[in-house]
Amino acid sequence: MSSVGSALPSPITTVPARRAWSRPMLLTAALVLTVVVAVQFGAMPIAAADWLNGPWSDAAKTGGAHVLWQLRLPRLGLTLAVGAALGLAGALSQALFRNPMAEPSLLGVTSGAAAAVALTLTVFAGLHAALPADVRLWLLPLAGFVGALAVCFSLDRLSRWLAPGSIAALLLCGLALQAMTFAVVGLCSFIANDEQLRAINFWTLGSLAGANWIMAAVMAGALLALGTLALRVAPRLNALALGEAAAAHVGIDVEHLRWQCITMVALLSALAVAWCGNIGFIGLMAPHLARQLVGADQHHVLPNAMLAGALLLVVADTLARTLAVPAEIPVGVFSALIGAPWFLFLLRGAVRRMGSA
Q1: What is the rounded CA–CA span in Å between residue 142 and residue 124?
Q2: Closest by Cα among 82, 134, 84 to 113
Q3: 3-state SS assignment for residue 75
Q4: Which of 155, 219, 253, 344 is close enough to 81 for a disulfide, judged by CB 3.0 to 4.6 Å?
């Protein structure tokens, strides 16, 4: 397989209208069922009376109602938004690079955001501590966005310079950039004090334990805005799947489209990493599940990748917080345990296609 464009199904591939709507409904039903299970299961069981006590009632200050309204529901809201964001980022990455194995964590994008966050927590710790708490809430996502954007830009330029259209070059460049960013994180860990080291380990392993309603609301708002923009560029992504020359021939500004997608991927990855740490492989699996359900049309792939990403992360986070009660396992461990075999399966299929090309 000499062309990256052949790695993904043709954008001309369509699915029956009934399948395009019935299978997403099944995916939505699975997500709803998983959410119900996630709300009910945990270190403290939730009773029916806890639902009747609103988040501002006196009963919600202690006991099951407090766990439900102040801990479990905001965490679930953030989990859904982060999972959907990672799924959307993965779908955009695969459509942009025309590569079924492109994914923010595999390409070093999320580790770039984590490196920028680690630098903010250590090298620029004085600036971080001097800011008000409300401003610090935004500083880490901003730093993560800068780091993610830098890696996206470097990856795009390096892969084009070394071997345009090569899957191997893209993955190797991503691995090289990932190694560099991990080295930065390692250096920051070396110079960090105990408190900073705990924070860096949090970003490295990934956790949703610090969720609150503000984080969930901001993440949901960003997801709504970026998801709307992604759907607007879906027709151009379909054309891009035929190749940059073909896309340019039909009047698409490929360079502008590339920057739009890179910025969206960087924003989505930065917000997820800055508040939840490095959660890998969700962006790899979700777009593949979406394409298996609805075909290759990006109008259908993008929203269904968001649903699939939310479903996968809710499952991983539910396992992370229930299997070792009262302790909690980092959610990145479960996403890696699920995603690494998936990646090897995809890599095996890609090698077979290359051998038969």
Answers
A1: 14
A2: 82
A3: helix
A4: 219
Omega of the bond leading into 330 within 30 degrees of 0 (cis): no
Q: Tokens 């070792």 label which residue?
A: 324
Please give the structure tokens belonging to residue 70. Answer: 């102040």
For residue range 232-288, what is the model confidence (pLDDT) as tens digits?
999 999 998 888 888 888 888 888 898 888 889 888 987 887 778 888 889 989 999
- Closest Cα to residue 271, out of 88, 113, 76? 113
Q: Choose between 54 and 307: higher pLDDT.
A: 307
Q: How far apart are CA 245 and CA 7, in angstroms?
A: 17
C-alpha–C-alpha distance, residues 179 and 123, integer Å: 20
The residue behind tokens 């939840």 is 276
- Residue tagged 């070396």 (tokens): 190
Q: Strand, helix or coil at 101?
A: coil
Instruction: Calculate ∠ Cα 34-72-342, nearest 5°.
Output: 40
Give the count of beta carbons closer than 10 Å to the beta carbon of residue 28.
14
Strand segments, DSSP code E, in 213-313 are none
- The whole model's pTM is what? 0.83
Alpha-carbon gap, residue 287 to 306, rounded angstroms: 8
Contacts of 106 (CB under 8 A, 6+ apart): 171, 174, 178, 280, 281, 284, 343
Distance CA 192, CA 184 (A): 12
Class of residue 255 by CB neighbours under 10 A (exposed 0-12, middle 13-18, buried 19+)? exposed
Which burial class, exposed, middle or buried, applies to 343 when counting CB atoms under 10 A from its CB (0-12, 13-18, 19+)?
Answer: middle
- Cα–Cα dist 84/312, whole Å: 9
Q: How far apart are CA 322 and CA 340, in angstroms?
A: 22
Structure tokens at 214: 């503000």
The three-point CA angle 113-31-85 to 5° equals: 20
